[in-house]
Amino acid sequence: MTPDSQPRQHETILVLKPEKGAKRFGSALRDITDGLKFWRLFCKLSWLDIKLRYRGSLLGPLWITLSTTVMIASMAGIYAYLFHMSLKDYLPFLTISIVLWGYVHSTISDGTTAFTTAQNIIHSLRIPFSIHVFRTLIRNVYLVLHNIIVVVAVFAIYRILPNPLMTLPALVLWSVDAFFLCLLLSTLGARYRDVSPIIASILQILFFITPIIWKPDLIYLGRQYMLLNPFFPLIEIMRAPLMGEIPRLSIWVFAVGYSVLIWLAGFLVFTKARARLAYWI
């Protein structure tokens, strides 16, 4: 054995001592920043996920666009009649609401299993855990882009012009929120496998109590309590600018407040559980 091939003295090979205090926060933050450096990897993995999901299909991901179009078309006529609204007022609102909710629903649902579905990679490769969260987010961005076709078509028919200045900050807030919410749910989902079905049940309820298929203006009494539903302000800050409207200041205040809570919860839970994630899945 040559001297160069021998282990150097005092060289650390593996540290088994658990981190405490500020070191855990530093390691968690470094995991996130290092994960961003692998953007080519998680983008390719996300695209591969979509290709595998629709392998053998003639239309491929266009089935997403087709199913969304059929859903919106069937719901628009019924609910416009029930709410006594014209299609000109209701169809653009329903279209953007369904598309945004579809992204929220799929991102949250996939977020609960981001780590468990990547267990083979986690057990075989030493890469940042955050890569699997970014992979989930990008995959759902690819999927929602197929539904943008429906939004563009409806907006073109009814001549609705989005407000880009208000859409940009909402898009940034949504991106950060989606990451930390997925980070939170994926960590909890790795420890407790009941998280996924619980979240699925909660999302079904939230679809009806959040202004997705009905406009907020339809509520006369207790409208102020709608802000207690975190999904309402967070969706409204994106939906209103896309429809050429400006959200109220109170909407933004609550949206930012809920966002900060999501960031703190996601980062703290990930920091505390990061060292044990590989053993849970």
Descriptive report:
The chain crosses the membrane at residues 62-83, 90-108, 141-161, 168-189, 195-214, 249-270. Belongs to the ABC-2 integral membrane protein family. The protein has one domain (42-279). It contains eleven helices and no strands. Residues 11-16 have low confidence and may be disordered. α6 packs antiparallel against α7 (164-191) and α9 crosses α10 (249-273). The chain has helices at residues 22-37, 39-53, 62-82, 87-111, 119-124, 130-158, 164-191, 195-209, 231-242, 249-273, 277-280. With 281 residues, the protein is an all-alpha fold.
Quick rundown:
The protein has 281 residues and is mostly helical.
Give a quick account of the main beta sheet: strands, pairing sense, barrel closure.
Answer: none
What general outline do the C-alpha atoms trace? globular
Percent strand equals under 5%
Tally of discrete structural domains: 1
**Rounded mean pLDDT score:** 88
Give the N-terminus to C-terminus distance in angstroms.
Answer: 39 Å
H and E order: HHHHHHHHHHH
Counting DSSP E segments of at least 2 residues, the number of strands comes to 0
Structural class: mainly alpha
Total count of helical runs of at least 4 residues: 11
Rg, nearest Å: 22 Å
Low-confidence parts:
11-16
**How helix-rich are the residues, as a percent range?**
55-70%
